[in-house]
Amino acid sequence: MTTTAAALLALLVGAVIGAGIAVVIFLSLRERDRARAQVSRAIPEGIQEVLHGMEDPAAIVDASLTVLASSPAAAPYGIVEAVALTADELRQVSRKARDSEGVATETFRLMRGAAPAESRLVTVRATKVSPRLTLLVLRDITERERVEQMRRDFVANTSHELKTPVGAVSLLSEAIESAADDPEQVRIFASRLTGEAQRLASLTSRIMNLSRLQASDELTEMREVPVDEVLTSAIEASLIQAAAASVEIVRGGDRDLYVSGDAQVLSEALSNLITNAIAYSSEGSKVGVGVKRVDDVVEVAVTDRGIGIPEADQQRIFERFYRTDQARSRRTGGTGLGLSIVKHAVQRHGGEVRLWSRPGRGSTFTIVLPLIEAPIEATPGKRKKKNKMKASKNGDHR
């Protein structure tokens, strides 16, 4: 019994000692791995492949802020493998994530591209991957911020523009009520009230048109549109204004050209340009409307010999509610939305609007649209053949 007990005791002591040694070895190995991790610059398996497949700019940087791996989209921001981060903002957010033992998010501007570089607004999220490695992911929010700013400006400008005619209508209504016993004054106030109501209706209509053009929905009335049809419609809509201003509209250029689009939208856009040209032209002058085919596009130019647009205003002329001549706009009833409508209408048709202007010499606005082939039924030979077939069906064999 004594021998057996001693053997069991020895076995137990051996097991305890073995377990202790195993624990010590395990703790030593873990401490070794932890120490290696503290100084290791090895990228965890799979991360580099993920980075190379990302569309957003992203990178892994070490404690010295050197880029170990990056996505292709990061290069334009100066984030290149084996090169240290140069942007102070990126360096700061990387340190912040590493020191806080977690995630850091910052929004700031970075330069993108080579000279001339452009400033972009980005949101950067830095995540600590290991004691020495940090993951940076950039999200370009420039366009989102621009659209949001446009929305805020649109609401503010619309409220401001609507306030003037609404206030005038209210005051004129009170004036009519006060002058109820004076028919002559009532007629004067009623006439002014009608003018303000028309101005309010015009402004509301243009705001709705611009909102429709800026919507993401596709244009619903797209078809093969004769440019001649668009010009005729736009010119006829402006004849009364031209006659009142003693301005002659002269049309010239190529004929029988076609574009794909919404005829009404294009006609309204061209009418806006002609209306502006008339409003800014002197009495007895001419407004030219010309059409020219250039390779695979159609150019429709509206030219006046008016006051012209200063160079400082030419970059902003297509902004909503922007006016170069506030006094003239008030006299002519301008809303400041016409050129913005033109720009968006043409862009929705895959084209662009160009401007040439010199103060004192006049302005030329050119609408550029993709050219399409004339439909078969519109070609002269096909029309003649079609008419003969029709005559044959009717029994006319001349």
UniProtKB/TrEMBL annotation:
Establish whether keyword Protein transport is in the entry: no
* Claim: Phosphoprotein is one of the keywords in the record: yes
Would you say which domain of life the source belongs to? Answer: Bacteria
InterPro entries (alphabetical): BphY/WalK/GraS-like, HATPase_C_sf, HATPase_dom, His_kinase_dom, HisK_dim/P_dom, HisK_dim/P_sf, Sig_transdc_His_kin-like_C
Q: Which UniProt keywords apply?
A: ATP-binding, Kinase, Membrane, Nucleotide-binding, Phosphoprotein, Transferase, Transmembrane, Transmembrane helix, Two-component regulatory system
Q: Report the main location listed first in the record.
A: membrane
Domain Histidine kinase: start-end pairs: 157-373
Chain ranges passing through the membrane: 6-29
Q: Where in the cell is it found?
A: Cell membrane
Q: What is its EC number?
A: 2.7.13.3
The record's listing under Pfam families reads: HATPase_c, HisKA
The molecular function terms in GO held by this entry are:
ATP binding
Q: Where is this region: Disordered?
A: 378-398
Q: Which reaction does it catalyse?
A: ATP + protein L-histidine = ADP + protein N-phospho-L-histidine
Biased region (Basic residues) positions are: 381-391
**Entry's PANTHER family?**
PHOSPHATE REGULON SENSOR PROTEIN PHOR
- The identity of this protein, by name, is Sensor-like histidine kinase SenX3
**Source organism of the structure:** Microbacterium aquimaris
